[in-house]
Specification:
alpha/beta, Phosphorylase Kinase, domain 1, Rossmann fold, five-stranded parallel sheet, 20 helices, 49% helix
Length: 526
């Protein structure tokens, strides 16, 4: 058999059926899953994925040599995120009783060998039956940020991720969708994407120059996430078209956020995004995030419309179009700053609100460390900058950094929560002026709890060592003595919360964004 000779599709189908019988003799029932480009045989604890001998506009698996190369690519790419799932590329050999995974016969096909998992382990299934949590998505956001940090940067000389490519891909998807659903619904998406593509040219050039176009996953939605080994793991990376995975890392993150929003769980999506931003520090991505969300929603609407249906519980094309249209509508920006002593509940409340409201959080404890080159959970006392991290100049630099980030995010049309102590009047006034200049609604989340509660929380937090804050009891006492209370004018804009009592988060959100509204002008998430 010549590995470079095109394979007869009928012979390939017969080989798969014969291999299935061979596996059934060893494992009993062997379900066969068929997609438009592959077959997957589920045998015992493993799955074997074979490429169909196809030649399409976007891939060529027509020969054994090409399928072997594609399997090797699939293994390499997916082991970056799912090494426990992708086990190897195995030969399928001819034998006296038909094709086999054993023996020494002629290699007639190849397959990717994977660890098998139950369908209910998919993130989409876990979401449907209530087993997917904000903590799960936050942990995955942290893992994805680490993956993006080590992923390969787009090669010199390529145009992957360029402004021209991004624009062309978006407009092609919008045109295809309009052809499926009609111009009345499709044309507004096309026009909005085209207009935004013009405005974002400089942003995309800066992203490429800043090494933010990398070899990502490319197809990051809930059906490609699996719960395994007590964590969410991404699998099924796009291997057949490099242009679909050599993308702005914000496109990877935006795909998953969009999918959760389309499924009615924006709260989980923003829990994921918050962690991705906190551990990756890529707040510059926010400028183009709304475009990425509308583009990804347009693509999924097109795919769903072309298929003519969707799985039970999954969004249909109308849901994706509706989400895109809501994302296109401008909303009034809003800025919320926290105020309170260490352990007064600022970060907990900020986290709850950002998930419910669809906001971007900037956390001083994290950004202070980032400016010093430290990871969020790093202990500064064990570093070279321990004596400089909490000086007056460091604090001034941190608040300046937070202000610059907040200004840019407000300009991009997203509500912002700045999670910091804001114990000095001048710091609060600076952000009030920033909000006024941006035309943003401004509020102060005024957090309180008895000193005994604060001391107990600080002791417990330091024992866990799972938080970016490094304040101890001595810091608490010092700040309590030096804090500058809210003025009368500030109290009029403040939302006072006792964090040691039951907090009505609906009321807090309404007081900030307006009754019954989130970042898109919609009712709050469940």
């Amino acid at each position: 058999m010549n590995a470079n000779t095109p394979t007869d599709p009928r012979a390939a189908q017969a080989l798969v059926e014969a291999l299935r019988r061979h596996l059934q003799a060893r494992h009993g029932d062997v379900p066969l899953i068929e997609t438009h480009i592959s077959w997957v045989l589920l045998a015992g604890a493993h799955a074997y994925k074979l490429k169909k001998p196809l030649r399409l506009d976007f891939l060529d698996f027509s020969t054994l040599a090409r399928r072997r190369a594609a399997c090797a690519d699939e293994l390499r790419l997916n082991r970056r995120l799912a090494p426990s799932v992708y086990l190897g590329v195995v030969p399928i050999r001819a034998g006296p009783r038909g094709p086999s995974l054993h023996g020494r016969g002629l290699v007639v096909e190849v397959a990717v060998k994977m660890r098998r998992f139950a369908p209910r382990a998919l993130a989409s299934e876990r979401l449907a039956d209530g087993r997917l949590t904000a903590a799960d998505l936050a942990a995955f956001g942290q893992a994805l940020a680490a993956f993006h940090a080590r992923a390969a940067v787009t090669p010199a000389g390529s145009d992957w991720g360029s402004a021209g490519r991004v624009r062309a891909a978006a407009l092609q998807a919008a045109a295809g969708l309009a052809a499926q659903i009609g111009p009345a619904l499709g044309a507004p998406l096309h026009d909005w994407l085209e207009a935004q593509a013009g405005l974002l040219q400089a942003h995309w050039r800066a992203r490429r120059a800043g090494a933010r176009v990398r070899e990502g996953h490319g197809d990051l939605h809930l059906d490609n996430l699996v719960w395994m080994d007590e964590a969410l793991i991404a699998f099924d990376c796009l291997e057949f078209d490099p242009a679909l995975r050599w993308i702005d890392v914000a496109s990877d993150a935006g795909f998953l956020l969009m999918d959760l929003m389309a499924r009615g769980r924006a709260d989980l999506g923003f829990a994921f995004l918050d962690a991705w931003l906190e551990y990756g520090g890529d707040h510059d991505a926010i400028q183009g995030l709304r475009f990425q969300l509308v583009y990804r929603a347009t693509v999924r609407a097109l795919v769903t419309a072309l298929r003519g249906g969707h799985a039970a519980g999954a969004p249909g094309h109308a849901a994706y179009v509706a989400l895109a249209r809501r994302l296109m509508a401008p909303t009034r920006p809003a800025l919320l700053i926290t105020h309170g002593l260490p352990a007064s509940g600022k970060s907990w409340l900020a986290r709850e609100l950002l998930q419910r409201a669809g906001a971007i959080r900037l956390r001083s404890d994290v950004e202070r460390k980032r400016l010093a080159g430290l990871a969020p959970l790093a202990d500064s006392r064990a570093s070279d900058v321990s004596g400089d991290l909490y000086t007056a100049s460091s604090t001034a630099a941190t608040y300046g950094h937070l202000a610059a980030r907040a200004r840019a995010i407000l300009a991009a049309g997203w509500p912002v929560i700045v999670d910091a102590a804001f114990l000095r009047r001048g710091e609060r006034e600076r952000f009030a002026a920033l909000a006024a200049a941006a035309g943003a609604r401004f509020s102060i989340l005024d957090c309180h709890a008895p000193m005994a509660v604060l001391r107990a929380r600080i002791a417990a937090r330091r024992a866990r060592a799972d938080d970016a804050s490094e304040a101890d009891e001595s810091v608490l006492e010092l700040l309590a003595a030096r804090q500058e209370p809210l003025t009368g004018a500030e109290r009029a804009r403040a939302i006072r919360v006792r964090s040691d009592e039951t907090v009505d988060l609906d009321s807090v959100q309404d007081a900030w964004l307006g009754a019954g509204r989130d970042a898109l002008g919609d009712p709050p998430a469940p």
